[in-house]
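Changelog note: in this version the structure field was regenerated for every chain. One regenerated record is shown below for reference.
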Amino acid sequence: MPITLGLLKNLLIKPHETLPKIKESSDTTVAQMVLNWILVGIGIGIVSEQIVYSLAAIVGGIVAQTIFTLFLKAALMIAGGKGQYRDVLSSTTYPFFGLSLIIPIISLIGKTNPLAGIGAATILVTLYSVVALVGFLTMLRNSFKLDLITLWVILSLVIMAMTIAAYVSIGLFSIIPGLKYLTISDFINYFSF
């Protein structure tokens, strides 16, 4: 299914009708994923007023989503799921468009009127987080033919494993003699222009 303004509008207004009709196509899914992360990067750029943070969000988000999708697909296959990588990528991309779109909108509102930004963020993030998470689990359920409880447990285990891996990696890196402890700011400054 090609990315059109009609599709994007329907993802915002009628996600319950649009998400089941999406045909998993790797090229349009990747384009949608990039669009989602560009929108998030724009929102971060508005708030931080730093292009480096925008670029870090875009590149880091795309890489993190790709890795998360790979691990989630492996876990779903071990549990007996019958889907493919593109099914998981579609599930982690299309339902999150609304959430990605509201980030720059909330950033603009918050820059002009912080109190209105807090109110808008509370309402819109809650609404589109529910839409994103339910759509994500529904698309996975339809693609992999697993029940929601199994999906929830697998998703929790993948997130837990990735969190443990991140902490172990950071912990091991910090105890190696002669290496300086790195912060996120050091990492971003290293790649800044």
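Spot check on this record: The chain has nine helices and no strands. Residues 40 and 100 are 6 Å apart (CA to CA).
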